[in-house]
Amino acid sequence: MPELSEAGTAASRINTSIPHPARIYDYLLGGKDNFAADREAAEHLIQLSPGTREGVRAHRAFLGRAVRHLATERGITQFLDLGTGIPTQGNTHEIAQEVNPAARVAYVDNDPIVLVHGRALLTSTPTGMTSVIEADIRRPDEILGHPEVRAVIDFDRPVGIILAGVLHFITEQEDPHAIIKRFGSAVPSGSHLLLSHITLDFASEAQREEFTKPYDKSTAPMVPRSHAEVLRLFEGWHLLHPGLVEVVQWRPDRHSFGDYIPGGGHAWAYGGVAVKP
């Protein structure tokens, strides 16, 4: 568990003047852990696409359904959640430990504010084991070798690798394929990859030109990808039914708050779950 001094050090490194994807996402979900720069960027997104809030909720709902599926149907008992974002309702450990109280989750994010909230996150689960570290998925070896990750994840047993809504902040030069390949090489057969990714496949030309601008001044630019481009991220993995689809179409649950997009709109994201053969 991080010491209070560690969280305090992390808090001192939070730059409130530059939008951060995790805090923009928090604002769109209705959270309070964001700053004026984050809110300005988020409101710009909403102006460009009025369904942005609903799309973010749909994205979050997909994560919940997919984690539940892995915990209930696929027997996954440990999860490596990469780019987790600021803790909110329906976190991975809450869902997994509802199914299996002994489920283990290691959270990773590069925003210091996530570590600030880490203590509350860690103490909220008295049964299963949970950890949170500040690290960047662009440096997989640092994460895979981190003692707090190693204390939670047994890499000799199947792992659920979660990359939900994070790879669209990785440029082609930073090689998202290599990132997935490295994490995949660290886990055995029977491990699963849960991945979701922003797309502009449903956008007009005008929307395409404007959609990513709110992230231009953030800590990471947004790189939307097409269905074919996201599908290639699953190379070496076997996609489960229904394949790579819009997040609202992945095993929809009529009781889920995030499965409805008003006016027949789109969630602006693809999602899929795959198994390592």
Identify the notable features of this structure and list them briefly.
alpha/beta; Rossmann fold; eight-stranded mixed β-sheet; 38% helix; disordered N terminus
Structural class: alpha/beta
Overall tally of structural domains: 1
For the record, what CATH class applies?
Alpha Beta
The topology string of helices and strands comes to HHHHEHEHHEHHEHEHHEEE
Model regions low in confidence, pLDDT < 50 over at least 5 residues: 1-5
Can you identify the CATH superfamily?
A: Vaccinia Virus protein VP39
Apparent shape: globular
Helix count? 12
Helix content: 25-40%
> What is the terminal-to-terminal distance?
34 Å
- For the secondary structure, the number of strands is 8
Strand content: 5-15%
Biggest beta sheet summary: 8 strands, mixed
Overview of the structural elements:
The chain has one domain (4-275): 3-Layer(aba) Sandwich (Rossmann fold), CATH 3.40.50.150. The longest helix is centred in the first third of the chain and has 21 residues, at 52-72. The chain has helices at residues 4-12, 21-28, 36-48, 52-72, 92-99, 112-116, 118-123, 140-144, 147-152, 176-185, 205-211, 227-232; strands spanning 78-82, 104-109, 130-134, 160-164, 192-198, 238-239, 245-246, 269-275. Helix 2 packs across helix 3 and helix 4 runs parallel beside helix 5. Strands 1, 2, 3, 4, 5, 6, 7 and 8 form an 8-stranded mixed β-sheet that branches. It has 277 residues and is an alpha/beta fold. It is globular, with a radius of gyration of 17 Å. Pfam families: Methyltransf_19. This is Methyltransferase.
